[in-house]
Description:
By secondary structure, the chain is an alpha+beta fold. The protein has one helix at residues 37-49, and strands at 5-9, 14-20, 26-34. Helices cover 25% and strands 41% of the residues. The chain has a 3-stranded antiparallel sheet, covered by helices on one side. The N and C termini lie close together (10 Å).
Amino acid sequence: MNQPVLSIDIAKGKSVAAAFTSYGVQVKKPFSFSHSPDHVSSLLSVLVLHR
């Protein structure tokens, strides 16, 4: 089964994430996000879109 994988590099104040298939194919280039509730919850949409 090909499930999306979200890789997150967590840093103080701002983090970077990238999305991959379970087979290691990149589906979303690395992007920055802040630690606000809106930005963190938007990570779920990245996983849903690439399902």
